[in-house]
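Quick one:
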Amino acid sequence: MLELGLRLQALGDDRAVLRLPWSDRLAREGGGLSGQALMAAADTATVIAVSAARGAYGPMTTVQQSTSFQRAVTGSDVLIEAVLTKPGRRMAFADVTLTDADSGRIAARASTVYALLG
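Output:
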């Protein structure tokens, strides 16, 4: 979270919204934000959403993450909203939407699954 500069924008019982600030350091050839940065932000947002739903952070690990990129983000922050679709006792499932903060257009969507270890 620190390396990407992520900032918490909103937190709810079943969701977290983070802001990924634009950084030339995270851009690739052509000026688009790297997919790796977007995937790491989606992963982090899910951890925070799961922690909020459980009332505190507990040990967990990513089991699966599938990301579909829809458009490049250039020169704009990204808003990452992770919404838990099934916060179980041993597994948690979430849908993540990554939106270009300037245009409001969806840049990517991710589906994540976590094993809850504690």
